[in-house]
Amino acid sequence: MEYVIKPLAKKAVMWHLITTAIVILLMMVFGVMMLLNQGELISISPELFYKIMTAHGIGMIGIASLGGLAIMWYFLSKYLPLNPKVLVANFIMFLLGVVSVLIGIFGFNFSDGWTFLYPLPSQSAQFGGPAGALFFLSGILLLGVGFLVIYGYVAYHLTRVYGGLHKSLGWDYILGKKTGYGPPPAAVASTMVVICNSTAILAGAVVIIASILNILNPAIVIDPLLAKHLTYAFGHIFANCTIYMAVIAVYEGLSKATNRPWKSNKVFFIAWNFSTIFTLMIYTHHLLMDFAVPKWMLIVGQVFSYANGLPVMVVTAYGALLIVYRSGIKWKFWSLLFFLSMFGWLSGAIPAIIDATIVVNHIMHNTKWVPGHFHMYMGMGVITMIFGFMSYFNHQEGKVKENSWDLFSIVLYFTFFLGLCGSFLYAGRISVPRRWAEHLPEWVFSDQIGAFCGVLIICASLIFTIRFFMGIKSAGSQENSDLTKIA
Amino acid sequence: MVKKFPIGWGTLEILEVTVGGDKMYQQIAWTVTLFLVFLIALAFSFVYGESKRLNEYGPIQKKGYKIRKYYFIGILAVMAIISAVTLTRLPYHHEAAAEDYKSVDVEGIQFAWNMSEDKFVVGEPIEFRVTSTDVTHGFGLYDENLQLIAQTQAMPGYTNSVYHTFDKPGKYQILCMEYCSVGHHIMVKEIIVTDSERGNE
Ligand code: HEM
Ligand SMILES: [Cu+2]
Ligand SMILES: [Cu+2]
């Protein structure tokens, strides 16, 4: 049975997308500012640089999550009777959290990075006062709680409709109790995200609360290595889940564009079950240079990081290629972006896997190689899916005409995003450490290339955004939108 | 310097020799990434090129799933081989030779490196015992060409050992590899490696 998406849900999704578009642009400007400074083309103080870096990191991760959530909610609403007020509540929590984070960073000089590695926030609080860290950390906590509520709510409905999270992850099909097609990919992906991200947020909440307590009363301490485990269990999983939410748009969009089914079968379920397990356990690849961690855990970090590449390589991206192959597709702006997003995701998996190799990590950990790989699957993967979805949304809910800017802006975006990631990876290849406000002369060239690419990425994103805003004016006016048709 | 590892496979030892040991990992990582991303781009271009033709999906799926089986086994095999090779040479522990190492205490502190010694001699096996007294830093050992040759985390409450034997004299540097607040990028220390005990020039 399929539901009609409610007008309030459409509105809420629209506001999520509008916010997302604006924040992405703003954060990209921050990104270029960092590169201009590292490339010695402008000069900002290290204090400001690190504030911008903190804002860019948390801003991009947060907004990718918000955009991903909008996608998840929009499609899930077809299959589950979701009450859009919950989404609106999360949106308000999100905005409150963002305000708190911004006050922490720009009002009270918090600059300890979006990963706020304990005991750095309390150390900084001793000198600069506790307000910055307290605003920042409680802001993140607020964001987390908002998402947690959403996930709990979605889990409740998944359970009601499918009989349990193990059922919406297709265990009946894997165990051979049922054959054929199971729950829709949107439900499967959402189940994975609910499980992984709830775990992530709980881990994050523990370390945030411990940090806050430590700031308020330095006698309360937590082991730094344990704190790092929790921090990366949060950061790694949370960042990764953005893509598992956003990919729902690719499943639904490409299947619609090609008029071919993209449904869940046994292999599909196996892939998503593995993604769930691997995403939960491979955060240890962030601790490969913490020699105090038990060796077996680090080996697990390497081996399962490799394995985590398999579901996307063998099932998801491969499935995207298969569904498009000789489909007679008439390319639209959004379908092309969905297709290319799989290229971005898959490409990003390569340097990620290489860096998860312990011997390589030994000389590449915390070099620019690291932002190199995640800008690939975030920028050319998740963000591309979100931009694609903005246009898809307009097509479904409003009126838009394709025009020649579309192809131009896509080519612009991908060419220069490849350039940006290439400049980061190259910097990693020549051992440039990440998160350095000022660079040595030997490194500056790669930053300048990156800055140049960044400017053109912003141009392309600006075109995407303008097109989205122009289209959205008519959103909701379209009576025969797809979802209404079903009713 | 070419290190020998007990892999037991002639071909892999040859590979070992041609790539010249662990300092070449950056080059390998870069080349492999470029090559594979290029392959992926080719695959996507090919499918894009074929996308406007229309064939029935059923047979495409059938053939696609067949190809996928080999593709899957291929990737799995490559991953297994790489794991087998790389997991035999972890940087974590050098138990057997532990006594022969000269031990050097390294302490990270906002924003400097304190070291019990900062002059070393070529060929002398060294154990850097790295820790921190405030926040987490990252001990990154850079050679004269500004290439990162070894690292570990400098975490308060823990001591991590990095083992290294310098094979060339020169000025090396310790750079901070873990963000540790606004002075992160000024946390640089120079160390000197000379040819023999006496030669300081
Ligand atoms: C125009 C596009 C972009 C530019 C120019 C840019 C630039 C940068 C730069 C220069 C850094 C710091 C590198 C360093 O460590 O030295 C950075 C870090 C980062 N970027 Fe971006 N970026 C862009 C887009 C994105 C996107 C789309 C995302 C994710 C959705 C993203 C997420 C991050 C994250 C999470 C960090 C880590 C921050 C940290 O190290 O604390 N960026 N970016
Ligand atoms: Cu990770
Ligand atoms: Cu540092």
Q: Briefly, what is this?
A:
Chain A is an all-alpha fold and 487 residues long. In chain A, 76% of the residues lie in helices and 0% in strands. Chain A has one domain (2-469): Cytochrome C Oxidase, Chain A (Up-down Bundle).
What does this structure look like?
The complex is a heterodimer of chains A (487) and B (201). Chain A has helices at 7-38, 46-76, 84-107, 120-128, 131-162, 165-168, 171-174, 185-216, 224-258, 266-281, 295-324, 333-355, 358-364, 369-397, 404-429, 444-472, 482-486. Chain A is an all-alpha fold. Chain A has one domain (2-469): Cytochrome c oxidase-like, subunit I domain (Cytochrome C Oxidase, Chain A, Up-down Bundle). Residues 478-487 of chain A have low confidence and may be disordered. Chain B has 201 residues and is of the alpha+beta class. Chain B has 3 domains: 1-54, no CATH class; 55-90; 102-194, Sandwich (Immunoglobulin-like). Chain B is 33% helix and 28% strand. In chain B, the strands form 2 sheets. Chain B has a 5-stranded mixed β-sheet, with no helix packed on it. Residues 1-22 of chain B have low confidence and may be disordered. At the A-B interface, helix 2, helix 4, helix 9, helix 11 and helix 12 of A face helix 2, helix 3, strand 5 and strand 6 of B. The complex binds protoporphyrin IX containing FE and copper (II) ion (2 copies). One copper (II) ion binds next to loops of chain B.
